[in-house]
Specification:
homodimer; 230 residues; mainly alpha; Methane Monooxygenase Hydroxylase, Chain G, domain 1; 6 helices; elongated
Chain lengths: 230, 230
């Protein structure tokens, strides 16, 4: 990316910012995987670990916000550098919300682990994998200012929507079959919905990356909701 | 709020920014109310209007982002002014997501209007009212830099969580009672969840206002999820 600020201090600031964002991203990616593993392996200790570890994600959010503000105040960046920093300020919020969603999944997993499993979990871990990859790719696209990678994330989101819809409909049929399934199926529905929303956060990040690099806003021509399920 | 920038151009910029944010806020507040009215009055034309009007919300998001970046580039604000602009950049994202949630509710309303109503809707419009008021108060707290108002929003969030839980449990019992209720009750559950999330967005805004004014981050000591429902 061409930069109007070539001094070393500014480059060091940007490197620091990118590293912190990647560190925060790595944490929330691990929390997505662990929260769903807590469900599939019925491991409530792991669920509790995800819930506790969210503090660190929150701490990183505050720290990255401060870093962005410090860079704005000291370096007064312009043009593409300014877009980079303002985009980072927004991305950090998406990462923090992804962390909250992983906590929410972990809480549901703890409840579900108290009862016998409704069914073998196959599609939910697949959806978690996809969501986690989307977060990783979107963040990689940001730190490398890579539009092609960001556009791949936007394209891939459809697969998450389709898989979510499949899970939703399957759980609905379990509920119809036997009212004893309703409570557990509802909890699983919300877990799937949380994973689909994590995918939406990745999409938001990817859209912001395209804007940051191109200077053209593509955030809104496409709809975020392709599914017909709630 | 004490300002290090006293020149008139800067004040005019800030006034412009506040006005745009309030205009965007007024729009999303109306969309929350209309999306739920589309459900309670079985008015799918109104639902469609909410869906179409979201374009304007999205346009305002892009415009406000640009305004913030222009102020940062031209005025190079420091200290509390810098916090004001960086907070506005984050708040606008919350407002846009609230708009998306209203669209999602409107889409569910359209589907639900195709079938006979499950039950008279009493608590859902109440939850919508509370959520809408929370958004309004949080945004007022921002434009007037009013910490007391922001703290009132944080305190009030508990009432939304309690009401959401009540709706959730009632819908669960409808589902248990008769499997013919399941599909509609699930859709209503997601509508209630969306309203509760709108309340969470208002809470996010309020937390940012406290930080903006006090310079102390209170975003993370309290948990966002007090409910035990998914």
């Amino acid at each position: 990316m061409p930069s109007t600020h070539t001094d070393k201090a500014f480059e060091a600031d940007l490197r620091d910012l990118r590293e912190k964002l990647l560190a925060m991203g790595a944490k929330v990616e691990a929390h997505i995987a662990d929260s769903v593993r807590a469900l599939t392996e019925r491991d409530s200790t792991l669920a509790e670990r995800v819930i506790q570890a969210d503090k660190e994600v929150n701490r990183l959010e505050v720290e990255i916000d401060e870093t962005c503000r410090r860079i704005l105040a000291l370096r007064q960046p312009a043009a593409s550098d300014l877009r980079l920093i303002t985009t980072a300020l927004k991305i950090v919020t998406d990462l923090e919300r992804i962390g909250d969603l992983a906590v929410n999944i972990a809480e549901r997993a703890k409840d579900l682990n108290e009862a016998p499993p409704l069914k073998p979990y196959v599609d939910t871990p697949r959806l978690a994998d996809l969501a986690q990859q989307q977060v990783k790719k979107a963040l990689d696209a940001f730190v490398s200012s890579d539009v092609a990678k960001a556009e791949a994330v936007l394209k891939e989101d459809e697969h998450l929507d389709v898989l979510y819809l499949k899970i939703f409909n399957e759980l609905l049929s379990y509920m119809m079959e036997d009212s004893k399934n309703i409570r557990r199926a509802t909890a699983l529905m919300f877990i799937a919905k949380h994973l689909e929303r994590i995918g939406d956060h990745a999409t938001n990040v990817a859209e912001m990356v395209v804007y940051m690099v191109r200077g053209t806003d593509i955030r809104h021509p496409r709809s975020r909701n392709l599914t017909t399920a709630p």
